[in-house]
Each structure stands twice: as structure tokens, then as C-alpha cells.
Amino acid sequence: MTITMPDIKTLRIGVLCGGHSPERPGSIASGEAASKALAEAGLTTELIDMADTPLSSLRDRIDVALLGLHGLGGEDGKIQGALDTLGIPYTGSGVMASAIGMHKPTFKTLLTRDSLDTPRWVMRHPKVSVESTISSVRLTLGFPVFVKPSSGGGSLSAGIAHDANELRVLLTPADGEPYAEFMIEEYVQGIPCTVGLIEMEGRLRTLPVHDVHTDRAFYDYRAKHDPAQRTEHCPSILPTPTTESMQYMARRVHQILGAHGVLRVDFMVGPNNRTVILEANTLPGLSTRGNLATMARAGGIAYPDLIQHIVRTAFTKPGYLP
Ligand SMILES: Nc1ncnc2c1ncn2[C@@H]1O[C@H](COP(=O)(O)OP(=O)(O)OP(=O)(O)O)[C@@H](O)[C@H]1O
Ligand SMILES: [Mg+2]
Fold first, then answer.
1. Which CATH superfamily is 100-116+188-315 part of?
2. CA–CA separation, 63 vs 41, rounded Å?
3. For 55-64, how does the pLDDT look when each residue is reduced to its tens digit (9 = 90+)?
């Protein structure tokens, strides 16, 4: 049920960030940037680190939650379910879209059902031995392959394996790592791109495509956090048919997921402009120099406006979805 849109000047906006996810540093950056922009616009806002905040305390403390959380526990439907139960409106997708977006193999299964291109993949279930997974990879994909946790983010615990030995290393989680399930994908050599979508005044806006070039082996954690390790363009310098195709696919992903409010869909553009979908981020990063803010600026939306539009989407969910 759509909630009546209040005047955001009357709201106590809780910017939720941090928590215990491996993506905590990025989440703190998102939360700090968004709450600063809201405060500078004269709105009532509070930055709340979920690592030391009991959920139930939010009920009397805030009127709406702007989610600056990323990764497990924040982007996977759990906090969304808790906020639904507490009756607190929140930004971003609901429980189902968040959970599906977080679990890459489930998301990719939906893509293939709708004939959208995504790298072929093999699962490494925690109860299946590494050796039998390696055999499946040899038979179905061959080498090289790209390995990542099924529910990871920020390029953490991901990498390229050129042979069985490298694959064995990547499939052996480090001590204390939360990820047990991995996926091994067909390796697509190419240019990482992303497309942002934002609902504004009842309309889904598709933002200009953002592309990245790096001399590192892939767009890894270091390339994402050190600007000297990458060159980026927004709008993308790729051919228009390629960028338009990604924008179309991003909108399809939004529909297929049942996403809401804001979404960022990541792609690789490979040989012959083959455009594959890697994943969808239901709570994209909100830092001022991050991809979403960069795409918004290229689309004529200044950062403070972007954040206020996102807050408003907490009140525009069209109807019930799990
Ligand atoms: N199948 C693949 N083949 C080649 N490179 C890949 C593949 N999958 C991922 N990569 C590389 O890893 C990067 C991160 O991939 P992906 O977006 O799937 O992971 P993530 O950790 O969820 O990222 P995010 O920071 O957006 O949360 C890509 O930009 C690309 O450089
Ligand atoms: Mg990504």
C-alpha cells in the first residue's frame, strides 16, 4: 500500500549505516555523505551505526530510514523485514528484491529465464568438495574463470583463476570470512560498466552509463578505492548502441527483481560489444564521488537532490510484495 507522501521537512530521517558487514567502511562513507547533505539542506537527520543500535530503539527515534547499508545484513532483506515489522518506511527495495539481488546465482537464474545475457556459472556449495567443484568447472567452463562469493560485494574475496591450483586457493575461504558459498563464472575480458536507476516524481529515470578502465587484473577492491588505479567516464565513451542496450537491460532488471526506489546494475562489455549483466545492487553506494552520485550528476541531478529524492521513495512503494 502506498503511504501518503509527507513533507520531508517534518520528518526525523535516520541514516542507517555501518553494521557488521564486510562492506562496513563503504557503508559508513555512504551514511556520512548522505546525512551531511540532508543536514546542510536544513532537514532533521541522525546518522545511526547499526553495529551498536538495537533495532527496536528505532521505532520512537525516526520517521523514515534512509538505508546507507551495504552487503550482508543490510542489503539482503533482513533489515528491510525488520523495518516492515516495526512499521518504519525505508528507502530501496523490499525484502524479496533485496534478498534476490544479494544472492547472485538466484538473480542470474531469473536473468537467464528472461534470455538476458550473464556469464555462465558453476556453484561451489559449502557441502560439496572443492575437488568436485573443480571437475565441474573443467567440464563446463574451462579456464580462466572468475570466482566470487555468491552473496559478496565490493569485489571482496573475488579473483581470476587461470588453472585448478589458483581456483583451489580462491575457493578456500580465509579465516573469519563470512562467505561459504561461491560461484565460478565464465571469465569475460572487458570493460566494467554500471547503470543507475532512480525513481523521481513517479517516473523511473535511467542515468547515463558509467565505464571504468583499470590496469589492474580486474576492477578489484584497490581499483574501487584508489582513484589513481582507474580512469572512468560518465557518460560512457562506448558506442551508443552498447550504452543504450545496457540502459534497456538495467530497466528490465528493475522489473524482473521488483526493485524499488534506486538500483545500480553492473555489467561487463566484452569482445564484439557483448554486454553481460554481472549483478544488481539494491542499495548502491551513496558517497559524493561514488558511481551513483557521478551518474546522477551526469544526468543533471545534484547530490543533495539525489539524496532527497531517495528519501521520498520510502513513501512510494506501489503495493505489497514479499
Ligand atoms: N565473470 C567475470 N569475468 C571477468 N571479470 C569479472 C567477472 N565478474 C566480475 N568481474 C570483475 O569483478 C568486478 C566486480 O564484480 P561484481 O560486480 O560481480 O562484484 P561485487 O563484489 O558485487 O561488486 P560491487 O562493488 O558492485 O558490490 C567487475 O567489475 C569485474 O572487473
Ligand atoms: Mg558490482
1. ATP-grasp fold, B domain (3.30.470.20)
2. 18
3. 999 999 999 9
Q: Is 119 in the pocket of ligand 1 (CB under 6 A)?
A: yes
Q: What is the pLDDT of residues 277-299, one digit of tens each?
A: 999 999 999 999 999 999 999 99
Asked whether 151 lines ligand 1 (CB < 6 A), one says no
Chain position carrying cell 565441474? 136
> In the chain, what are the domain boundaries?
8-91, 100-116+188-315, 121-186
pLDDT of residue 172: 87
CATH for 121-186 is: 3.30.1490.20
Assign domain 8-91 to its CATH architecture: 3-Layer(aba) Sandwich (3.40)
Instruction: Find the 32 Cα to ligand 1 centroid distance in Å.
Output: 25
CA of 320 to the centre of ligand 2 (A): 28
User: Is residue 131 predicted with pLDDT exceeding 60?
Assistant: yes
Q: In angstroms, what is the C-alpha Rg of the chain?
A: 19
Q: Which helix (H) or strand (E) holds 194?
A: strand 191-200
From 251, 256, 244, 268, select the one nearest 199 (Cα to Cα). Answer: 251
pLDDT in tens, 231-249: 999 999 999 999 999 999 9
The phi and psi torsions of 56 (rounded to 5 degrees) equal -65, -25
Q: CA angle, corner 17, sides to 81 and 63, nearest 5?
A: 60
Give the Cα separation of 62 and 60 in Å (integer): 6
Q: Do domains 8-91 and 121-186 have the same CATH topology?
A: no
